Amino acid sequence: MKYLVSVLGVTASGKTTFIDFAKKQCPDLVRSVNIGQILRAKYPPSYFEGKDSMPKTEQEVQEILEDYVREFNSSESEVLLIDGQPRTIHQIDFLEHLIDKYKLDGIQYVWVDCLDVEREKRGTKRSKTEDELELFNARKVGDKISVFEVLFSLLDRMDTVVTCDTSSYDVSAEFLWTLRYVMGKWGYKV
Hints:
190 residues; globular; alpha/beta; 5 strands; 5-stranded parallel β-sheet; Rossmann fold; 7 helices
């Protein structure tokens, strides 16, 4: 069995932290890809123009995603956690194309969210340079608009979206509940 789990949310909502938690809970079962991290390692913050998804990176995002799905499909892992994708409605369609092309068994969407004040703290704390802080500040509003558009499109398509609130007092318990729900749908115990 091969499944994708798309972990969605706005900048600094806790997506990567959720994925790191899932990988610790199920190390032999899951692997992950963080396309944003790959692109940020390759380009300076100014390249992104304060946007979360740009036409000039769309082809590269698709190539990276397909490479990881292809590699995942031939691996022993059963679940690929996708950090922060899809970020556009077109990327939803591309994920569905990959599921068909590689004959995967399904996809589950996880919406990671937290209070804006918490996002502000996290974004400011993790920005190591003035350029990174400027990029975070530019993305925190625009990012929200585009990612919510994807969320609403998924709901409109009748896809199930599991929510995970990372601003709760006991984030580990929230992560564990979410992970158990998602993996339990496919018969896995966490």
